[in-house]
Each structure stands twice: as structure tokens, then as C-alpha cells.
Write a sequence for this structure.
């Protein structure tokens, strides 16, 4: 015969525990909500986000020539590749690549890093990619390195003629930004 | 804290009145004047005082520089030139602040190595040592952000490379870097927040220094013998003995600083930082300031990005557990025949890492860097715990006094 008081006492303590936890939880959520504006203010502001797309004319770029343009404050390489460079990039077996993923925001996610997946199909002579070494963010030097592509002077990463990492500390291929052709010779990045 | 009197009767009635309400004079008398200090401290012990003065110099010169500096990407570089050319004594203040940073690090490295040689990190001074490591880390963060402010090429690319270290964090790395930058590249928002934090951190440093001194005044100073003071004969009051000795060392140290300031003000800087920041061109050879070179060498000697970053941060954080890695019961390296050698090899190893960090990461520099990095960790993880168990220490003096007297006897005979 358990006494009524005992049961009530148990109930009391559980209810008190519940109130403690509930109060603490509300307090934690409130504190978090108060802190968030102080954290989020450091993220890119509206004026920075507004610069998110830019248009470029490719007609003046001769074969074998490359230019550097600026998109969202970052340098972007646009290179008109020679047939030899395209052949070199195509000849590389997948097993030789340090990073087997295309890193192309226009290709399906996780696509293989074949040469054609790094460019737009039918426009294989034009290679567009971020001029930012995936190691620590330096700008690589063009037509340099052991693979005839790009070489990063900061910490010695070598990229091939499709901008794929082949040797050195960089973990991934140079990133291809989101872009599309708006006519035969013009692209919009972003 | 033993030995100092808190029940001293102040004669001045105003002082007495205030002290009975807020015992600030008693505290100062007990901690800064009468504080019993081992009588055998050598000149390596003066670097604590030198560091305190350097913090004050950096604070004052920094606050006045901020009165003339403009933290926006368009104007920062020119405002620094404006300080150099137009502001009255601007050149002096800027060279004082820039060389002051280097001198600050020279002093802190000597201070850290002194602690290592004489075992100042050992029980009961572990917390004192750990606060010191946090001070060192806060100093590095402050110096890094300060170097970004002139907005030259090295400022920009140093900022880019160092902030990109965080992109190595799995999954959230890129978002963290965007958050740090406030954009998609190091730019105006980055410079602005670095200025804000560069102004804030020295005050955090000052608070940490307060804790460091508090933690020092609980057990009192270590000393070259590593034997704790046993009686009043082993100690002397801090003032005037060590106030004067520290002051002398400070004057000599500041003479060296003045020599740099006036005769070679850019010797410890980098010429490329007189080229305005350009986000489209990376200098062919990026190097951080000299005081970061050993850590930079460790970062570059690991061929994997994430592991390189982990190795670099570990090389700093391992200092936090140093008190528990050293297994020897004997504090001072003077009485440890094997450790003494190991210590100097370690110093040499750090210097080698510094030279490697200043050279391109290729060819034989890469190999030397890898060996030196390996040895750096070997020293802490394997050698320190093992040597403490293996070596036979020399006999310790019974007390500080006995050691001092034995030396003066040897000299006079």
C-alpha cells in the first residue's frame, strides 16, 4: 500500500525538474537568438551579395591566349586553349588525377573530372575557372608548371591544361564557377 | 604570496583612509615592492618586465596611430603613407609600432625558452605557464591582424593565406572563411573588422597578463637552481633590487629597439608591403613576418592541406601540455646533463624551421623542413618523457643561498 504522500512527492520532484529544464531550454534558445545577429553581421552584406553576376565578351581572346577577369572581387581565368592543350588534357587517364571530381558547378554534382566535364560541351576550347589555388587561395601563374597548365608560386601546386590538380598540396581541382553562354561569344558568370 | 605584510600602517592619513576602504596601497606594497623574490635571478628573468613595457609601448603607439589611420580598402594604404609623410612624428610612431611588434616577439621567444630551460612550467606553475601560452597565441593573432592594416601586397596575401587555413575544416570550412571575410574574398569588410579586432585584442592581452602575474605571485618566481626558496635568506624584496635590475635590462633592450627604429626601420619588414594590395596578382614569394616563420614551415612541410593545418596548430597547442610531457622531477636544466643538450638542439631546430619558412617550399628546403618538423614533435612527444626517466641528474644545492655562496667562494679562492 504505497502512501499518497510518496506518490505526490515523486510527482512534485518530477514537475520541478521539468520546470528547471524547460526554463533552461527557453533561456538557451533566447540567448542563442540574441547572439545570432552579432555572429551573422560578419557574413557578406547586401552590397557584397549584389555583385553576384557579370558578363564577359570572349571574341577578343585569341587561341593560346588567356585573360583574367574579376567576378565577386575574385580573379577568374578565361583561357582560349590550343588543340594541343585540349589533347593533353584528354589524354590523361582518370587514375592519374589527384582529385577525380570535376568541381564544375555547371556539371552534375560529383561528375568525373574528364576534360569535357570541365568545360561546356561544344565549347571545349574555352576554359573558365576561378583563379584561386584550392590550397590557400593564391593566384596561380598561367602556362607554367610541370603539366603545361598553371603553377601556384605560394606552395608549389601544379595544375594541368584543364586546371586539374596534379602535384602539390592543393586538395582539389581549380573550381569552375557557375556560368552560361548568352550568345556564341558571350558568357555570364554567376 | 607568503612573507609580505598586509598589516603595514601607512603614515599618510589620506593613503591610510583610502587603503582601509580599498586596500590598493597594501596590495601594491605587498606584490610590487616587498614581494619576496629569489636572490639569484639572472638576466634571462628580466624579459617578463621587458614584455610588460613592450605591451605598454604597443598600446600607446597603436592608439595614436589609430587617430590617423583609415581602415577602408581604398584609403588604408594611402593613410599609412600620410602617417609617414604628413603627420607630425608619424614616421617615428609607425616605425616604433612596427619594430615594436618584432621586438615584442624577440622578447617573448627568449621568455618562453627561458621557461623551458629552467623548467618554470613544472608543478606548481602549470597554470602560470598555460596562461602564458594563451598570451602567446593572442599576441600572434594581434600581430597578424595588425600586419594586414597597411593593406600592401604582403598584408593582403598574408591575410588571404592565413584565413584560408580555416577552409581546411571539413564540411563548414568554406562558410567559415566567407564569414571571416564578410565577402567572397579578402576585401573592405575584412580590413574593417581586422582593425576593430586589432584594437580590441591588446586589451584582452592586458587582462591575460594580469592573470599571468597573479598566477606568478601564488608560488612566486622560479629561479636558476629550480630549488624553491626555503628561508628569508633565499629571497630579497622585489623593490628596489629587481625593479632596478629590470629597469636596466629594459633600457638596454630599448636601445636595441631604437637602433632598428632609427637605422634599419624596414629590416624586419618586407619590401613587397610597400606595393598596394592587388587581389589579382600574388607576389611570387609570399612570406609571413619573421616571427611566424617556424610555424609556417611546419604548415608547408606536410603535403596534405588539412593535416598541414592540424600540424601547425598542434605545434602551438602542444605547449599547453608541456608540464605533463616532461617527466623529470628536477626543474632546472642546469642539473640535467641530457636535457641540457636536448634543449639546445631544440632551440637550433626552431631556428632551422625559421630559415626553412623563409625559403620556397621545394627541393632540399622541403626535406630539411620535414626533418625539422619531425624533430619538433619528437622532442615533445618522445624525448621529453623518456629523457626524464633515463638521465641521472646532478645533485641539487640544498638551498638558493648555499648555491650562491658556493659560487662566490669558488670565485674568491
Amino acid at each position: 500500500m504505497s502512501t499518497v504522500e510518496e506518490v505526490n512527492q515523486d510527482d512534485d520532484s518530477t514537475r520541478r525538474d521539468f520546470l528547471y529544464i524547460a526554463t533552461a531550454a527557453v533561456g538557451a534558445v533566447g540567448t542563442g537568438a540574441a547572439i545570432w545577429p552579432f555572429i551573422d553581421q560578419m557574413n557578406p552584406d547586401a552590397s557584397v551579395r549584389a555583385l553576384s553576376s557579370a558578363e564577359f565578351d570572349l571574341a577578343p581572346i585569341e587561341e593560346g591566349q588567356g585573360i583574367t577577369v574579376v567576378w565577386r572581387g575574385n580573379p577568374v581565368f578565361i583561357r582560349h586553349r590550343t588543340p594541343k592543350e585540349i589533347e593533353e588534357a584528354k589524354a590523361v587517364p582518370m587514375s592519374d588525377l589527384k582529385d577525380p571530381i570535376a568541381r564544375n558547378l555547371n556539371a552534375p554534382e560529383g561528375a568525373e573530372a574528364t576534360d569535357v566535364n570541365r568545360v561546356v560541351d561544344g565549347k571545349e576550347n574555352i576554359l573558365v575557372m576561378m583563379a584561386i589555388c584550392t590550397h590557400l587561395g593564391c593566384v596561380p601563374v598561367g602556362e607554367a608548371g610541370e603539366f603545361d597548365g598553371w603553377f601556384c608560386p605560394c606552395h608549389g601546386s601544379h595544375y594541368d591544361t584543364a586546371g586539374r590538380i596534379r602535384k602539390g598540396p592543393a586538395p582539389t581541382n581549380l573550381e569552375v564557377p557557375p556560368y552560361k553562354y548568352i550568345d556564341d561569344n558571350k558568357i555570364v558568370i554567376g | 604570496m607568503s612573507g609580505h605584510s598586509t598589516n603595514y600602517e601607512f603614515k599618510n592619513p589620506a593613503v591610510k583612509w583610502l587603503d582601509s576602504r580599498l586596500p590598493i596601497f597594501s596590495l601594491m606594497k605587498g606584490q610590487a615592492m616587498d614581494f619576496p623574490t629569489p636572490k639569484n635571478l639572472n638576466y634571462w628573468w628580466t624579459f617578463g618586465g621587458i614584455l610588460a613595457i613592450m605591451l605598454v609601448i604597443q598600446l600607446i603607439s597603436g592608439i595614436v596611430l589609430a587617430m590617423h589611420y583609415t581602415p577602408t580598402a581604398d584609403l588604408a594604404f594611402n593613410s599609412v603613407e600620410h602617417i609617414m609623410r604628413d603627420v607630425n612624428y608619424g614616421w617615428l610612431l609607425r616605425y616604433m609600432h612596427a619594430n615594436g611588434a618584432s621586438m615584442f616577439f624577440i622578447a617573448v621567444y627568449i621568455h618562453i625558452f627561458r621557461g623551458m630551460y629552467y623548467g618554470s612550467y613544472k608543478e606548481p606553475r602549470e597554470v602560470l605557464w598555460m596562461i602564458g601560452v594563451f598570451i602567446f597565441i593572442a599576441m600572434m593573432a594581434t600581430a597578424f591582424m595588425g600586419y594586414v592594416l597597411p593593406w600592401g601586397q604582403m598584408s593582403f596575401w598574408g591575410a588571404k593565406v592565413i584565413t584560408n587555413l580555416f577552409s581546411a575544416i571539413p564540411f563548414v570550412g568554406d562558410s567559415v572563411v566567407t564569414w571571416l571575410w564578410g565577402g567572397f574574398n579578402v576585401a573592405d569588410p575584412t580590413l574593417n573588422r581586422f582593425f576593430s579586432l586589432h584594437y580590441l585584442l591588446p586589451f584582452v592581452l592586458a587582462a591575460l597578463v594580469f592573470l599571468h602575474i597573479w598566477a606568478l605571485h601564488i608560488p612566486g618566481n622560479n629561479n636558476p637552481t629550480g630549488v624553491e626558496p626555503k628561508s628569508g635568506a633565499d629571497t630579497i624584496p622585489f623593490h628596489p633590487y629587481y625593479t632596478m635590475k629590470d629597469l636596466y635590462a629594459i633600457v638596454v633592450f630599448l636601445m636595441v629597439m631604437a637602433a632598428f627604429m632609427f637605422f634599419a626601420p624596414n629590416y624586419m619588414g618586407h619590401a613587397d608591403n610597400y606595393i598596394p594590395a592587388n587581389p589579382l596578382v600574388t607576389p611570387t614569394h609570399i612570406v609571413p613576418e619573421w616571427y611566424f616563420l617556424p610555424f609556417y614551415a611546419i604548415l608547408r612541410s606536410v603535403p596534405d592541406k588539412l593535416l598541414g593545418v592540424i600540424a601547425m596548430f598542434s605545434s602551438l597547442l602542444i605547449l599547453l601540455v608541456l608540464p605533463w610531457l616532461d617527466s623529470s622531477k628536477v626543474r632546472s636544466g642546469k642539473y640535467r646533463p641530457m636535457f641540457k643538450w636536448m634543449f639546445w638542439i631544440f632551440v637550433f631546430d626552431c631556428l632551422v624551421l625559421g630559415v626553412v619558412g623563409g625559403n620556397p617550399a621545394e627541393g632540399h628546403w622541403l626535406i630539411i623542413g620535414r626533418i625539422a618538423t619531425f624533430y619538433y614533435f619528437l622532442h615533445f612527444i618522445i624525448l621529453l618523457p623518456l629523457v626524464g626517466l633515463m638521465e641521472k641528474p646532478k645533485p641539487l644545492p640544498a638551498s638558493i643561498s648555499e648555491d650562491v655562496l658556493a659560487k662566490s667562494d669558488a670565485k674568491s679562492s
